Amino acid sequence: MGVSEKIKEIEEEMKRTQKNKATEYHLGLLKGKLARLRAQLLEPTTTGAGAGTGFDVSKSGDARIALVGFPSVGKSTLLSKITKTKSEVAAYSFTTLTAIPGVLEYGGAEIQILDLPGIIEGASEGKGRGRQVISAAKTSDLIMMVLDATKKAEQRALLEAELEAVGIRLNRTPPNIYLKAKKAGGMKITFTSPPLYLSEKLISSILRDYKLLNCEVLVRDEAATVDDFIDVIMKDHRKYIKCLYVYNKIDCISLEHLDSLAREPHTAVMSCELDLGVMDVVDRAWEELALLRVYTKRKGVQPDFSEALIVRGGSTVGDVCDQVHRNLKESFRYALVWGKSAVHVPQRVGLGHSVCDEDVISIVTK
Ligand SMILES: Nc1nc2c(ncn2[C@@H]2O[C@H](COP(=O)(O)OP(=O)(O)OP(=O)(O)O)[C@@H](O)[C@H]2O)c(=O)[nH]1
Ligand SMILES: [K+]
Ligand SMILES: [Mg+2]
């Protein structure tokens, strides 16, 4: 039996099994097996089918956004609107057959936008170019899930399920569970507070199934589920990515419907056709990326505001140094900071100081 068939079999069994206290343990074990098989399915094959590989587009710029969605929702229309790249647009499905990169210039940053082929249900199991599309999405800093506002609400959950199945976790952080494999000593499982959904028995059975016989587990979140625990075991196959849900074609829906869509979290609405809300979508994407612009300044000279250094949210002066030059930290003495992160200006700070968007920094070396 092939991996796909085994997956089908387990999925069928899970569907047949009623969810209740008595079956909880059995279902948990099945989930563990399913996660392992799915990861196996995504391993690159030796036959060169490239199951786990994305499209051959090299990363460029300060961040990458992937446009993911069902066919004909307007992904290519959006790319053509916000970048100088023209990607073919047409009313039929699967107009786009490969990854088309474009560059969005925003506030001194260059963001690569990846237009991708439409995906369909079953993409995670290899339908269409689904797996390649999803692999490409996995490499992005932000997924823009483009949705057709005229279609049923289920479309969003269907797409989410496809991305979930290959280990992408949208707008979530890794579970608060510590797991460390050991050479010997058996299993040591502890909970910081009584678990609501997990038990020592379930955890140890799943660990045995994964042949993790010697390890230490500390569950720090009482609300952690079996899915969370499996994500921790499979952490090399999990990717936590931000997602902005973008509903296009709002020119075709009622105001009431538009209003309810716009209120959903992490959501923006637009009409590429009428050029409505497109720039708001770009602003929202920028916010979600949480990139920071930092300007460097030489002593006695005005900072150059046309040349921003782009760093990730949460970056420190040390990260800024790395961006300027590989060895700069070695000769670093201190930095002077003007801007939102400074309590008084200029503030004298060390490498650990966290920077804010639009800070000006003067680095003083030995
Ligand atoms: N009514 C309306 N139609 C739109 C809008 N944006 C795009 N379209 C139309 O939707 C159709 C599909 O657009 P594409 O940009 O090719 O869609 P896609 O998501 O790239 O499609 P695939 O590459 O086939 O997956 C085209 O006929 C567009 O003209 C919009 O805001 N409103
Ligand atoms: K299309
Ligand atoms: Mg397209």
CATH superfamily of the largest domain: P-loop containing nucleotide triphosphate hydrolases
Strand content: 15-25%
Largest sheet: 7 strands, mixed
Helical residues, percent: 25-40%
Number of domains: 3
Quote the distance from N terminus to C terminus: 66 Å
CATH topology group of the largest domain:
Rossmann fold
Spell the H/E element sequence.
HHEHEEHEHEEEHEHEHEHEEHEEE
Q: What is the count of β-strands?
A: 15
GO molecular function: GTP binding; GTPase activity
GO biological process, one term: positive regulation of cellular response to amino acid starvation
Pfam families: MMR_HSR1, MMR_HSR1_Xtn, TGS
Domain OBG-type G: 63-290
Write the layout of secondary structure elements.
Elements: H1 3-16, H2 24-42, E1 63-68, H3 75-82, E2 100-106, E3 109-115, H4 130-138, E4 142-148, H5 154-165, E5 168-170, E6 177-181, E7 187-191, H6 200-209, E8 215-219, H7 226-233, E9 239-248, H8 255-262, E10 267-269, H9 278-289, E11 291-296, E12 309-312, H10 317-324, E13 332-338, E14 347-349, E15 359-365
Parallel strand pairs: 1-3, 1-4, 4-9, 5-9, 7-8, 9-10, 11-15
Antiparallel strand pairs: 2-3, 6-8, 11-12, 13-14, 13-15
Helix pairs in contact: 1-2, 2-6, 6-7
Bound molecules: guanosine-5'-triphosphate, potassium ion and magnesium ion.
Pfam family, one: MMR_HSR1
GO molecular function, one term: GTPase activity
Keywords: GTP-binding, Hydrolase, Nucleotide-binding
